[in-house]
Design goal:
Layout lengths: L2 H19 L1 H7 L1 H11 L6 E5 L5 H10 L4 E6 L2 H14 L4 E5 L12 E7 L8 H10 L1 E12 L6 H14 L18 H10 L2 E16 H10 L1 H6 L5 H16 L2 E2 L2 E15 L1
Parallel strand pairs: 1-2, 1-4, 2-3, 4-5
Antiparallel strand pairs: 5-8, 6-8, 7-8
Helix pairs in contact: 7-11
Length: 278
């Protein structure tokens, strides 16, 4: 295996471990968005839902609970590590109607027209070929079935989400401007591009609307979040101690503007993406 490939795998393993370790914090942080997604996606006649990029299963379990014991929600994620936690959570809750599949939504062979609807909370911005991915998801949804996704808007719309990177960038020599269309958290910032992707994948009745949701993070959770998540969190373990302490101090200053009475508050600036399978 070549050096670059080994580095990529190490990077992804570290990212997955961070998401795993941060499960409780992230579930709590994004609970308001989860509720909005479920309220929007669960319609009359929906009995089977595909949850794309389900991670540790919070949204899958919430969908399963809303649907009831005779209907099912199937979580799909590329990480076996995260799905192992999702399965344990489902077993602990006795959620027999929550199921999980390891696979890449862009390439995994899904059952043709096997679901009434597909949904995702922050799980569809990472495909290297998003048209192919949304086409594959469409093939798994019955005609007329709905697609409901919550995705991030742009970096400029989400100053909290970029605070650590902005604060630490000068110390780390980061001067690059990320490709706005590259797979990643903000890949769907441009609503016109998102609509082109979804329509090219064969979905119709595409609607994209802004969604701004107040979120809160207690200081103790924020400190953990800053050390583990995002571009800064991923590289912290590789830094020499003196630089690491400088970076952490800069990040703390960067988040200070969001703190009041021990709680960081911010609006999650997102798009609600809705469409129908043809």
């Amino acid at each position: 295996m070549d050096t670059q490939r080994r580095e990529d795998l190490t990077w992804e393993a570290r990212r997955g471990r961070a998401w795993l370790d941060m499960q409780v914090v992230l579930d709590r942080l994004f609970l308001p968005l989860e509720r909005i997604l479920i309220d929007t996606a669960v319609e009359d006649g929906v009995g089977t839902i595909l949850d794309v990029g389900c991670g540790t299963g919070s949204t899958t379990l919430a969908f399963a609970e809303r649907l009831g014991p005779h209907d099912t929600c199937t979580g799909l994620d590329i990480s076996d590590l995260l799905l192992s936690v999702a399965r344990r959570r489902a077993a602990a809750k006795g959620a027999a109607n929550a199921r999980f599949i390891v696979g890449d939504a862009q390439r995994h062979r899904l059952p043709p027209q096997g679901f009434d609807a597909a949904a995702s909370r922050f799980g569809v911005m990472f495909f290297d070929d998003p048209v192919a991915a949304f086409a594959n998801i469409r093939s798994a949804v019955r005609p007329g079935g709905a697609l409901t996704c919550v995705v991030w808007r742009g970096r400029g719309d989400n100053p909290f989400m970029t605070a650590a990177e902005r604060a630490a960038g000068p110390l780390l020599g980061w001067s690059d401007q990320p490709d706005p269309d590259a797979p990643g958290q903000f890949a769907f910032a441009d609503a016109r591009r998102v609509e082109r992707i979804v329509r090219a994948a064969g979905w119709g009745a595409v609607e994209i609307s802004p969604l701004d949701v107040p979120c809160a993070l207690p200081k103790a959770d924020l400190d953990l979040y800053a050390r583990r998540m995002g571009r800064v969190g991923l590289i912290l373990p590789d830094l020499e101690e003196a630089l690491r302490e400088q970076v952490l101090a800069a990040v703390e200053r960067g988040y200070a503007a969001f703190l009041l009475n021990g709680v960081a508050t911010f609006d999650a600036a997102c798009w609600m993406v809705r469409a129908r399978a043809g």
